[in-house]
């Protein structure tokens, strides 16, 4: 995992790339994996966390990209009608105010819904369908700094201190 000079997580790279960056003097290694790689002349302990020596400015840092996966993340993979948690494949996006009634594709009008609820709600508003939302949808304020979703079972323990709860999903 690559951290910015400010210790914010930026992205995940292969250990080969991490070692190249280190050879180039661009990063410092903060943590190692308990694993080694051998070259002809040297044995390397694989880096787990590296930090850039110079700060990289991230564009659109405060804007969360409006996309399916981020809507699921905002809603914590929970159907906003029946309050049950599902995997991405079982989830759909629902227009709270249906498109046919002028509903927009926006953070405040799109919510996560399971297939059953989406079908049941159909072309109605939550009030018409008698299916109240469990939470009012809003634009998320958290920043998605890591562009790879990290499963909590996959992420090494040493990474967790650098990840916020929203990133370690
Ligand atoms: Zn549901």
What does this structure look like?
By secondary structure, the chain is α+β, with helices and mostly antiparallel strands. The chain folds into 2 domains: 2-59 and 145-160, no CATH class; 68-129, DNA Binding (I), subunit A, CATH 1.10.30.50. It contains 5 helices and 6 strands, in the order ββαββαββααα. The protein has helices spanning 15-23, 68-74, 115-121, 126-129, 157-160; strands at 2-3, 9-11, 27-38, 43-52, 91-95, 110-114. The strands form 2 sheets. It has a 4-stranded mixed β-sheet. β3 and β4 (43-52) form a beta hairpin. The longest helix is centred in the first third of the chain and has 9 residues, at 15-23. The radius of gyration is 21 Å and the shape is elongated. The model has no long low-confidence stretch (mean pLDDT 85). Zinc ion (ZN) binds next to β6 and α3.
């Amino acid at each position: 995992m690559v951290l910015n000079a400010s210790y914010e997580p930026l992205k995940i790279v292969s250990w080969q790339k991490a070692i190249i960056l280190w050879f180039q003097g661009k990063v410092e290694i903060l943590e190692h994996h308990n694993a080694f790689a051998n070259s002809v002349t040297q044995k390397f302990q694989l880096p787990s966390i590296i930090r850039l020596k110079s700060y990289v400015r991230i564009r659109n840092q405060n804007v969360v990209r409006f996309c399916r996966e981020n809507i699921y993340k905002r809603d914590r993979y929970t159907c906003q009608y029946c309050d049950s948690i599902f995997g991405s494949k079982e989830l759909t996006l629902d227009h709270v105010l249906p498109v046919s009634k002028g509903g927009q594709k926006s953070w405040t009008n799109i919510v996560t819904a399971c297939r059953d609820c989406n079908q049941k709600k159909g072309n109605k508003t939550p009030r018409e369908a008698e299916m109240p939302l469990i939470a009012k949808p809003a634009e998320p304020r958290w920043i998605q700094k890591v562009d790879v979703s990290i499963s909590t079972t996959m992420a090494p323990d040493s990474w967790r201190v650098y990840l916020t709860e929203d990133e370690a999903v």
